[in-house]
Structures are given as structure tokens and as C-alpha cells.
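Pasting as-is:
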Amino acid sequence: MFGTLSSCVLVLVVSGAAQIPKEPDFSGDWELVKASGAPRDPPPALTVRQTITRKTVRGEPMTPYFSDLTVQRHFKSGIVSETYQIGIISGTVGSIGEWTTVGVTWEGEILIIRTGKYSGPPQQSAPNTEHEERWSFDPSGRLLIMITDRLSGSPAASAVLIYRRLPNAIALERAVRGTSPGVSRDWETSPHASTHLVARQMLRRRGNQPAARAEAGLGHCEFSEEH
């Protein structure tokens, strides 16, 4: 009897494991804890959801896979939400000769998000812009996002963002406000941070006045709080 019961439990465990895709699942709420390079206004928090598809359009069982990725980027000014189809490269063509591409693919256990905006023949005429994000887990289970931005005629710019997993909605709200205990906001004061981020902090503290802009080294530049 006990042998039969053990066999049934084993079958159930193996069957359940077979319903999980082999690729990493980044689903969850995440708080930014470190940024290096020159990130441009990185979102202080993320909400990520990956959809698992287990059946065909006819309702027949199939090998499960992650079919969709939804990313909510939380800013103090609001949330920017995007949904991607994993394994699909798509594009749109504008009325003035501009066209864009979006592709989300796996490279082993790394999820790659690539977006591009081009003008003229495919990837031949300037100005072209490309953005790539490579998602993975670091050894401690944190979300690691390596970013590369390319602009035609300019060197590529890179940044690395590290997020820790949040336990609940209250922690997510604190992360968005920037009041999480024990978190160093080092990307805001790092010598590697972009000039605009440092200048933005100065203007927030002292007001967007001519003297403050001059001290920030921005002359008569104005900052917008839009993302």
C-alpha cells in the first residue's frame, strides 16, 4: 500500500514539474537597489508578469512556454505599462518613412528585449536608435538588467540595473516613493550617474531658478518631469 502511495505522489510531482517552462520566471514586484553606468531616470520599481501557455488554440495540451511578458515601470509620476509577445519580432511603419521594431527572445536563461526606431531603408539611413535589455538573475536571486543604447553616429551607452524582490504591495508603494528602509539610492549620487540626473536633483532642492541652473552647469535648460 505504501509503495503504491509513494508511486502516486512521485507521478504527481513529476507531472507538476513538467508544466513549468525551463526558462526563468521574472514575475513579481521589484525595487531598484543599484544602478551603474549612466541610466536615464531608471524606474524605482517594477511589476513583472509572465504568462504561461499550456494549450494550443484548439485546446490540446502542449509543452508549456512563456508566451507574454508584461512590465509595469513605476515612477512617482505614474506607471508605464508594456506587454510583449515572447519569441515574436514585430514592427510598425509610420506615414513619414519611419518604422519601429520590437523583439523579445530567449538566449539560454537570458531574456532579451530589443526595440529599434529607424528612418529610411532598414537600418541604413540615419537617424537610427536601438535599445536592448538583457534580463537575468544574479547569484543572489536579484533581477539583473543590462542595458545598451545605440544612436547612429554615437558610441553605444551601457547601464546595469539591479532590483530586489519585494514581498507585498506596501513595500512596492514605499519603493516607488523612495522610502524603503535600508536601501541606498546610490544611482542618484554615484559619480557614474548622468549629468542630467545630478542636475535634476539640484534643481529639485533649490528650485528651477537661473542661479540653480547655472550652478548645475545647465545654463538656461529646463527639466521636464515626464517619463
